[in-house]
Amino acid sequence: MRKKVFVPLLLILFLITVGLLYWYYLSPPAAFPEQEEIKATLNDPYNRVGVAEIQDTIFLDDKHVYIPFITEEEGHGISFWEWEKHEWQLSSYSTGSTPQIWKIDADDPSSHYIMWNFHPENNLDYLTLYLIKERGFSVSEGKHHYDPGIQMDFRTEVGERSYGYTAIPSEWQEYMEAENNMMAAIVPDSFFADFFPPPQHYFGWQSTGTDGSTEYPSYPNNNGFGRGGSSTEQLRFLGENDIFQ
């Protein structure tokens, strides 16, 4: 009799556990918070952003949201939000004008997006975004390898609203997937790998104003700050000497 009672109890406990795990990790996202709740999160004592205006709410997919904002000091910032552990969480934010890349899935380049938010008085026309791999030399399993430099770029309009985003181009995605596969296949020599690590790519940017200037867009002149996550990365501002002509 005890055995007959014990089995249903185990089944009930199992079903409750499965239900809780589904609720916590797999349930569909709830409605996204209202703007006042978003501002309160960014303005809380831990983050101390000082948001004056939420400019937009942009869904990249049903679980990842990009929100540009303006601070009380006229800084233009970006914030990334994601549905995780049954709640909408602030993943990262920045009050600087430097573009960032959000790698939603680190292993899937098609989920990588570049975002920006510049003050309109910078009078920007377009951005040139770069994927660059420096020339390098490496030794693996006693074999010497020379890696040629790679530079890929494309232009994207800044837009009248000053903020925007773009998915990385398909050509970049193909290259990054090939590089990921190559890096996974490499078994570096334990000694030489420390001195000659295989070079990897990085992302950079330049801006061009409506007057044709390519100087760093520094208006307003205040220091940016933020909190990043493992899935976000600042793009490097590139001068004329940093790119292949």
UniProtKB/TrEMBL annotation:
Domain of life: Bacteria
Protein name from the UniProt record: Uncharacterized protein
Record keywords, A-Z: Membrane, Transmembrane, Transmembrane helix
Entry's transmembrane regions: 5-25
Species this chain originates from: Mesobacillus selenatarsenatis
Comp. bias (Polar residues): 225-234
Chain segments carrying region Disordered: 225-245
